[in-house]
Design brief:
8% of the residues lie in helices and 44% in strands. The chain is mainly β. It has three helices and 35 strands.
């Protein structure tokens, strides 16, 4: 019996090493003989595991559609780089355990770097970094950024990631690390320059599933391009989804992603995309809807959305520089907290949607500037404001960076307001309550130029409630066109 097993393993290894066109296929691993959905899962797992072991590509050419079931001893199917699923439709049943279907991860090592080196981006003295190679330097501040989120049992720990090439960082952290409060810890892993393409796959999560099947877990990677992926999730009782999880990555691109439903409820969270500690993410042509917000992100540095149709983009806490072009947002809000730099909307459409909500539960009202260029706002009396600043209280975070209260400067160029009959006022900033007795910082101007209002006339107001501000707020109204 042992001799038979050895001979079969030897034959399989020989077949793998001599694979035609250097690719492994499911049929090489017995797909045609599989008698159950569980066996088909094992075949995919073994194929990808072998591809990792022997550094071989895989091919799904001609497969078309597969039914698989997650067994009790399942592990995420490991991807080893680029994988074109060639328009495979994968129907997934899971009555065993919560699990990620596919993983694309690599391990990291602890490394010592100084706070000064992090801020100046020069790691010339770090012997462990090959001077000819690139690395991801994954940073964490073990001194909490936010002590406790109101209504929750946790606060926030800030993270940053630097792409280091030839011992010099190609980017900067969201905020400086060379402060007395910062307690720096760091990890490192290689950052290869080649693009890793994960493409052309439809995942159908079965409506009879007793456990959650998350889809992609991407961690500690650089230059990842996920393209033409559809995730279908029927109505369910689950929540806390993270269908696509991207952590500790740089240069991530999501293109032509369709998400129809998630594991979430209208009163319980769950995300189509969950990102944590990502520098330079680009999302192009995403179409997504769910009970809860599609995005749930933290620690995001440089993000761009282009030509997307979604119900929410979110940075829960700690981020810098957001650009959104040609996007449509519907029936919810875009949520930010502890964000710096610029948040820009260019040629975007807001349908019954709050453009910016400042999530007050983190109590991190940091300074940033907000821009709208050629945007269209459909406005009713329940959502007749640009920025929802929630509750401005006297509670104060201990970190100096998030202790003071700030509001954004606002610039609107060529906005179009489409009104329902019950709207008479449009507020730039809206508070649920204001008990803060000190001056609010940063905000000093609201510029609106070439405004067009359809459906009647409207009064433009700075805020629905009085608040103290450190500087006078300049609010000129120029070139208004009503009823066009």
């Amino acid at each position: 019996m042992k001799k038979w097993i050895f001979v079969n393993v030897l034959l399989l290894i020989t077949t793998i090493l001599n694979a035609q066109n250097d690719s492994l296929t499911p049929k090489m691993f017995g797909l045609d003989k599989a008698k159950s959905d569980v066996e088909r899962y094992y075949i995919l797992y073994k194929m990808h595991k072998s591809a990792n072991l022997f550094n071989k590509p895989v091919s799904y050419n001609g497969i078309g559609e597969l039914d698989i079931e997650i067994p009790a001893d399942a592990r995420p199917i490991p991807l080893n780089g680029s994988c074109d699923f060639q328009h495979l439709v994968l129907n997934v049943t899971n009555n065993s355990k919560a699990i990620y279907l596919f993983s694309f991860t690599q391990s990291t090592d602890t490394i010592h770097v100084s706070k000064e080196q992090v801020d100046n981006g020069d790691f010339s003295d770090i012997a462990r970094m090959d001077s000819a190679s690139a690395y991801l330097l994954i940073l964490q501040d073990d001194s909490v950024w936010v002590n406790q989120r109101q209504g929750h049992s946790y606060g926030h720990t800030r993270k940053d990631i630097l792409l280091v090439d030839k011992r010099h960082a190609l980017n900067r952290t969201i905020m400086p690390y060379n402060t007395e409060e910062t307690k720096l810890s760091a990890r490192i892993c290689p950052a290869t320059r080649d693009v890793k393409l994960i493409a052309n796959l439809t995942i159908n999560r079965a409506d009879s599933n007793q456990y959650k099947t998350y889809c992609f877990d991407v961690q500690n990677q650089c230059n990842v391009d996920m393209s033409n992926i559809t995730i279908n999730t029927p109505p369910n009782d689950f929540y806390a989804d993270a269908a696509i999880r991207v952590n500790n990555c740089a240069n991530v691109r999501l293109r032509d992603i369709v998400i129809n439903g998630t594991y979430s409820q209208t009163d319980h969270y769950g995300y189509g995309v969950s990102m944590d500690n990502v520098w330079r993410s680009t999302i192009v042509n995403m179409k997504a809807r769910a009970n809860w917000g599609i995005f749930g992100n933290n620690n995001i540095n440089e993000v761009e959305l282009d030509s997307c149709d979604i119900n929410r983009y979110d940075i829960h806490c700690y981020g810098r520089n957001v650009m959104m072009r040609n996007c449509t947002f519907s029936n919810l809000y875009n949520q930010f907290s502890s964000v710096y730099g610029n948040v820009v909307f260019d040629h975007c459409v807001f349908k019954n949607h709050i453009p910016v909500l400042l999530e007050s539960s983190y109590n991190a009202y940091t300074p940033f500037d907000l821009y709208f260029y050629n945007c269209t706002f459909s406005i009713n009396s329940k959502r007749n404001y640009l920025v929802d600043a929630r509750d401005l209280t006297n509670k104060q975070n201990t970190r100096p960076e998030v202790a003071a209260k700030n509001l954004p400067n606002i610039t609107m160029i060529r906005p179009t307001l489409i009104l329902t009959d019950d709207v008479s006022k449009f507020y730039m900033i809206h508070f649920s309550s204001v008990s803060y007795m000190k001056n609010v910082g940063h905000i000093n101007h609201i510029d609106i130029d070439l405004i067009s209002v359809r459906g009647g006339k409207i009064q433009l107001k700075i805020c629905n409630k009085d608040f103290q501000h450190a500087s006078p707020i300049r609010f000129p109204l120029r070139n208004q066109v009503f009823g066009k």
